[in-house]
Amino acid sequence: MPRPVRTVVAAFATASTLGVVACGGGTTGHGTATKTVDASLVSGRAGGTLTSLWSGDVDSIDCGSAYSNGVKVCLATQRALYGYKPNDSVHMVPDLATGPPVVSSDGRTVTVRIRKGVRFSPPVNREVTSKDVKYAVERAFFSTVPNPYAAAYFGDIVGAKAGAKPGTMLDEGITTPDDQTIVFHLSKGSGGVLAAGALGMELTAPVPQEYAAKFDRQNPNSYGEHQVATGPYMIEQDSSGRATGYEPGKRINLVRNPNWDRSTDFKPAYLDDIEILEGNQDATLASRRVLAGRSMVNGDWTPPPPILEKATTNYKNQLLIVPGSTVRYLALNTKIKPFDNLNVRRAVIAGFDRNALRLARGGQLVGDIATHFLVPGVAGFDQAGGVKGPGLDFLNATGKPNMKLAGEYMKRAGYPSGRYTGNANLLEVGSNEGSEPNEAQIAKANLEKLGFRVTLRILSKSTMYTKFCGVPAAKVAVCPITYGKDFADGQSMLDPTFNGESISPQGSLNFSQLDVPSVNRAIDRAKLLTDPEARATAWADVDKLVTAQAPAVPWLWDKWPLIESKNVNGVANQVTGAWDFAWTSLK
Length: 587
Hints:
A hairpin with a 2-residue loop joins strand 7 and strand 8 (181-185). This protein starts with a strand and ends with a strand. Helix content is 25%, strand content 18%. It has helices at residues 15-18, 70-77, 130-139, 150-154, 191-196, 209-216, 283-292, 305-314, 342-350, 354-361, 403-412, 436-449, 461-469, 490-498, 517-527, 532-548; strands spanning 5-7, 49-53, 82-83, 93-94, 102-104, 109-113, 174-178, 181-185, 233-235, 246-247, 251-256, 273-277, 296-298, 319-332, 367-368, 425-431, 453-459, 478-484, 552-563, 568-569, 572-573, 578-579, 585-586. The protein is built from 16 helices and 23 strands. Strands 2, 9, 10, 11, 12 and 13 form a six-stranded mixed beta sheet that branches. Helix 9 (342-350) packs antiparallel against helix 11 and helix 10 packs antiparallel against helix 12 (436-449). It folds into two domains: 42-274 and 565-586, Periplasmic binding protein-like II (D-Maltodextrin-Binding Protein, domain 2), CATH 3.40.190; 323-560, Dipeptide-binding Protein, domain 3 (Roll).
């Protein structure tokens, strides 16, 4: 007998209710008005080339595993089942799907209808079917496709298993009754959460198995360098499908997808092509090029403090401050001595000058001092303590260090002098982008104040995450992370990052390797709740439990300063905190 169903609409909004606008303007921390963008951008000018200056490469060019900078490219080249208008990071809208997902009353099945008329770019060229979405989700569990969030959000699909070999099919967990219907079968009643957010993740963008399978069998996987697109843009390629427009660490060139049909998409895609030029590690020089040049925007870096100060007065119509949905913290590896000691970790946080890190990034203009891990705007943030936090003595709201309290915690940890006197040499890694090398040096100095010996390695961001922080065997003691909500729910902030079950040999997001049974149980309980208030409270409780474990030093709730050349009509995406290539145009 078929199960009764209900349509999930709470997380969705129609185009008419959302409107089509870019991020609104506002004021900076200095009270100076910055750029305001309004609904007039609906009629942006078609044509032209936009140049985006980046310091480093994408974390992955394959949208089945991209999670950081790669997502900015994926939003222009691929069509997931659902997406977001750039000015709304809460309400999903149908993209490849035709409408909201349908969830059974027991939460164990989720059904989605996909639209007709969406075609793959050359050399595949054919129309997308539900089987292409099925394969896209399946491959996220392949050992050759190191997806960092599939297990957390899609792990309840029947038969899903991290590290599966290519060729493994989720025939029981995902069915395709016809070319326009896909049904997810879950082992738990977690379908409401899958429908409310996870189906908007990039791994649901269709992948043609007959074309991609040979690349997926390779290790390392090479589908990213041969990928086909469904969005308005694609990576420039030769006739065989090889991505000639991608040179790691140098450039990514996006051109129009000739098979894209504007009538099927909610994105306007004004630009003819987008040039991403990498290797711009001098953020001051790059900022000057953008502000004084033409058709340019900043990419994966934040303008340094002196540039921001100048921009608030001299270039205020070229500066946009985007309300953030990310938290910055320094993960402390709880599996490495002496950070396996709770009191040592609390000592580190108590003695840490978190405000110094914020000043290095740009001061109040770039964000507020973080006191826990949920971000403002996510349900549960207020219940977890809001801006003031949960009231733990080692984690104040000012960001100023308390060395006396730090010494007391060190004594509780077994160091009578109040300083670390052991022999451990801790490995800290940092990014080479923008102000982040300076931030890494500040973190190192703060650790050394308490007697720790620290070896610091500055790396490209992609190397830092994929080869060090996300690989437990690398034994990184301190790793910086900027983590944002994947969707407007506490699970997206706390499950992949602090659930012991999320630790994996590669692509792990639990950089702290926190694995505390009481925390894991609280996460498992919160996942299954469907009542919005009960769910918000449950994730707030998880946040409090995690924060009390001191697995990381939270120091900033981001605001994102974006700059553009004078002739750019930049539209910012509140999900990524970056310029949205599919909505930006030239004047």
